[in-house]
Amino acid sequence: MTLHTGRHFLQIPGPTNIPDRVLRAMDMPGMDHRSAEFAELGFAVMAASQRMFRTRQPVLIYPSSGTGAWEAAIVNALSPGDKVLMAETGQFAVLWLGIAEKFRLDVDFVPGDWRRGADIGEIEARLAADREHKIKAVMAVHNETSTGCVTHPLEVRKALDRTGHPALLMVDTISGVGSQEYEHDAWGIDVSVGGSQKALMLPPGLGFNAVSEKALAAAKANPSMRSYWDWHEVIAFNKVGTWPYTPAVNLLYGLKEAIAMLEEEGLDNVFARHRRHGAATRAAVKAWGLETQCQDPHAYSPALTGVRVPEGHDADHFRKVVLDHFDMSLGTGLNKVKGKVFRIGHIGHFNDLMLMGTLSGIEMGLDLANVPHRSGGVLAAMDVLKGRDVASRPKAAVA
Ligand code: PLP
Questions:
Q1: Which residue from 12, 34, 64, 89 lies 20 to 30 Å from 162 (Cα-Cα)?
Q2: Is residue 398's pLDDT more than 60?
């Protein structure tokens, strides 16, 4: 094993880098999760989570991965045989589809090429054609972490409204919330699914469901089997600041601190920072002469960038060269883009110089792995970070 010095660069799009402040906040002794002291923490994190999802409705916090929160959304709001509409935006849409099928939902899956967000026109057409309102939910992935393409939830909401369709709107914003605008209430989302290990800057282990009144009513009327994930059972306990089971106490301390940090920066500034890092990364990719996996500028993700390696080259070999030489982890290509794509995470606890380190490691790695490219990507990204474009650089510097 190669010995590395300094800090590992964790540039996968989740789990992300955990701020020292959050690590310190979690470094606490065990506590009685039925005590008044715990209830104070419980109420604080529930309120903070509502501010992150921008809702006045309950936000359920499960000790689970994001996959658990996906399942929670399904088993509460839907029953076997219910028809749902989903869109193939990438691997995470495919995985959510897999869970829906295991619960015997009847899924209408709008096909996609993994290079853009969901096809809103097609979603609208299928909703319009469903005159008997058989579709019970539209399920969309906000920030598709496997591709770096965004589906704007408000556009899906508008498609539902234009067709007067009453289906629930369920959105996976696991890598969206905290990295870009997200408005659970204002966008009329019924179930928002979140996870801790992305823009919330925490270790994996917390899953979130923000739920609308309409979703809660659907769950109340839903006789299907569920226990651990039952929204109403958790909400009853949440009313006194606790959970029906032992909550992930130390992760909740971390959650409180992480949201405090995001709010100190200001959510608008957090989102602008992610957008800026996305733009600088794409400028580097363009200067290298490589292609981003996302082909639609309207869908570019501020949280991560998927990059395609030229035909005949293996993205995973390139990632290994970067890891071996520079101790940096980049995201692998998933499922049908395995070996074709690597992913650069610019999400969470991150700054300009971390991005420069990341892009420098990639540019050197492209050379070392003999991946055909042009140099100058790091310089192009610097120009974006300095707020200048290449054309405005002094002539001598451009030459
Ligand atoms: N949805 C999205 C968009 C994700 O990025 C992920 C994980 O990367 C998941 C769902 C699954 O979450 P987990 O791996 O925490 O179960």
A1: 89
A2: no
- Angle of helix 377-386 versus helix 352-368 axis, rounded to 10: 170
How far, in Å, from the CA of 190 to the mean position of ligand 1? 19
pTM above 0.85, yes or no: yes
pLDDT tens digit sequence for 191-201:
999 999 999 99
The pick from 92, 141, 147 for probing ligand 1's pocket by mutation, whose C-beta has the most ligand atoms within 8 angstroms, reads 92
User: Can you give the pLDDT at residue 3?
Assistant: 84
Ranges of H-type helices in the chain = 20-26, 36-53, 66-77, 91-102, 120-129, 153-162, 213-220, 231-238, 249-265, 267-288, 315-326, 352-368, 377-386, 395-398
> Could you give all domains of the chain from N- to C-terminal order, each with its CATH number?
20-263 (3.40.640.10), 267-392 (3.90.1150.10)
> Are 108 and 99 within 8 A, CB to CB?
no
CA of 359 to the centre of ligand 1 (A): 24
Residue 399's pLDDT is 42
Element containing residue 109 per DSSP (H, E): strand 106-110
